[in-house]
Specification:
3-stranded antiparallel beta sheet, 6-stranded mixed beta sheet, D-Maltodextrin-Binding Protein, domain 2
Length: 354
């Protein structure tokens, strides 16, 4: 009887797993950029999987708890997909987290970029940069400091530059920071493609704001930063820096900036399942089909812009490129700046160094 009950339990378990809905785990509250993106792809993915796809939000500080929970409790479910974003990638480099991209099966990513804007009346030769902190914003801080302070000898000089030239307001959600900038309480803002179009471009048109720079897109074939066709006004960071200072940006702080910027932007919208997940190729095939669907393409173009997708093996190669950019010097510089300037509980992870 005991053996019969065990057999029935196993059959029921497999049956439930077979008929369970697919689920996208989003590590933030509804309404965030990654949340909106997930709600766009969920019904389209369901169409090509032939099964429902639900979106589950697991918010928490710096968007870490949701990813940790997926890693510790949910990833063995073959129909549960992690929707990770750039803030998760930042935290992975320098903070104590449970998750580890190397343990997962790569499904797909979109190689993205971020724009930085400022109030037109801000003059950073005399005004301090006032910027609202949130998940995914460390590269923006570092790029603005480089732009204002130029090439300095080492990270310690940039920590001093930060203290002299920046006011970084902690724990501001994107919408809150955007409104504070519009009210004049902050003088800089960073935006994704969709938010730039919706919220900032009208303010540029009115004359209150101006486009400062974008970080540029990491070309995953050449390994170089290239201009972003999604921003017609684009002056990418490196080009604008050279125009201002007459030299290329360089040094340990710049290398640390490139490291965290590339991790943040390449992994801004990335999908993962557990290693060995039997549904991995089924999901990838559905995504490939989804990206041929005209309605889906139009919705993604409006929300995310015209950026390149990397699926399966191409995504794995992209992640390998990111891993190879981690050096002891750049990672230690990033940790030092995060700890002594921004005030995060950053830690050095020697196991990440290639």
């Amino acid at each position: 009887m005991k053996k019969l009950l065990l057999t029935l339990a196993m059959i029921l378990g497999f049956t439930n797993a077979a008929f369970a809905d697919y689920k996208l785990i989003v590590p933030q509250e509804p309404g965030g950029g990654t949340s909106v993106w997930a709600t766009i792809i969920a019904p389209s993915l369901a169409k090509f999987l032939g099964e429902p796809v639900l979106v589950e939000h697991i918010p928490g500080a710096f968007d870490i708890p949701g990813f940790n929970k997926w890693h510790n409790e949910l990833r063995k479910d073959p129909k549960t997909i992690m929707v990770a974003h750039g803030g998760n990638a930042e935290s992975f480099l320098t903070e104590k987290v449970d998750y580890n991209y190397a343990l997962y099966e790569p499904i797909a990513l979109v190689n993205l970029n971020i724009a930085v804007d400022k109030r037109k009346d801000a003059d950073f030769s005399k005004d301090k940069i006032k910027f609202g902190a949130s998940s995914g914003r460390r590269p923006d801080v570092m790029a603005m400091l480089l732009m204002v302070c130029g090439n300095l000898p080492d990270v310690q000089h940039y920590i001093s530059c930060y203290k002299d030239n920046m006011v970084y307001i902690p724990s501001m959600q994107p919408a809150e920071a955007r409104m504070a900038t519009q009210r004049g309480e902050l003088n800089t803002v960073r935006e994704t493609f969709a938010s730039q179009k919706k919220f900032i471009d009208p303010l540029i048109a009115s004359g209150d704001f101006e486009f400062w720079f974008s970080h540029g897109v990491l070309d995953l074939k050449s390994g170089k930063i290239v201009a972003d066709r999604n921003f017609p006004l684009d002056k990418n960071f490196a080009e604008l820096f050279k125009a201002k200072w007459g030299v290329e940006p360089k040094g340990e702080f710049y290398d640390a900036y490139l490291l965290v910027k590339n991790y943040r932007d390449v992994l801004q919208k990335s999908l993962w399942v557990d290693k060995g997940n039997p549904n991995a190729e089924i999901i990838r095939t559905a995504i490939r089909a989804m990206l041929t669907d005209e309605a889906t393409k139009a919705a993604l173009l409006k929300d995310t812009g015209d950026y390149e997708w990397f699926i399966g093996e191409d995504m794995a190669k992209a992640y390998t490129i990111l891993q190879k950019q981690i050096t002891e010097k750049s990672l230690k510089a990033l940790v030092k700046f995060n700890t002594e300037a921004i005030g995060l509980n950053a830690i050095y992870k020697p196991e990440l160094v290639q």
